[in-house]
Design goal:
216 residues; 11 helices; globular
Length: 216
């Protein structure tokens, strides 16, 4: 009951966008009851509140819980999240095999055009991009983009995110005209779907401006 109460207080704090309070409540809940969902929330909000050490600790516990759960899709979710925290911490070597395992599980269990497969493709591509493996990253980005085009449509913000990611890759490769074209598309989608004041729209505009400056 105490774990459930703490988890409920975490949900209330999360709804109110009080990350630090949510983090504390979810951490207490996870310590009292070791379920995948509790560790997942505890890790997520520890990271959001800036406590990266605790986030990595809880995500390790989360992955252990996922392996005990005997649900391959839950395991894939846990692998993907743990790999993301490792990537954000700069530990690319440890993150890569987890991203690859998550992608392999999702491809084996889901259809080729499932959004979860697109998410895994996208995350692995971003890691490869961070480590300079552009040749391997590009086709993964394109596969994720194609899945999102077919399943979500070309007006969806997640499709815009895939355009954005591919634009950054082309910018890294100094293929600026292609990067500008994709970023312009992403900006227009976000402008229409999210509005001009949304942080994602503003980020696309700033990124587009920076790519154009790099061309000069």
């Amino acid at each position: 009951r105490a774990a459930e109460a703490a988890f409920g207080r975490g949900l209330i704090a999360e709804e109110a966008i009080r990350w630090a309070d949510a983090s504390g409540h979810y951490a207490r809940s996870a310590k009292l009851s070791d379920s995948f969902e509790r560790f997942y929330k505890a890790a997520n909000f520890a990271w959001k509140s800036g406590d990266h050490k605790s986030a990595l600790h809880f995500s390790t516990e989360m992955l252990d819980a996922a392996r005990r759960d005997d649900d391959p899709l839950v395991l894939a979710q846990g692998l993907d999240r743990q790999a993301t925290y490792l990537q954000w911490s700069g530990n690319y070597k440890a993150a890569e095999p987890l991203f690859r395992e998550a992608l392999s599980l999702r491809r084996a269990l889901l259809t080729d055009n499932d959004e979860a497969v697109a998410e895994s493709l996208n995350n692995l591509a971003l890691l490869l991009q961070d480590t300079g493996c552009y040749g391997e990253a590009e086709p993964l980005h394109r596969q994720a983009l194609k899945i999102r085009e077919e399943t979500l449509g070309v007006d969806h913000p997640d499709y815009a995110q895939s355009l954005n990611n591919l634009a950054f890759l082309y910018s890294d490769l100094k293929r600026y005209p292609e990067a500008v074209e994709l970023m312009e598309q992403a900006l227009q989608i976000r402008m229409n779907a999210l509005g001009p004041e949304h942080p994602h729209t503003i980020n696309s505009q700033n990124s587009l401006d920076n790519i154009r400056k790099a061309m000069q």
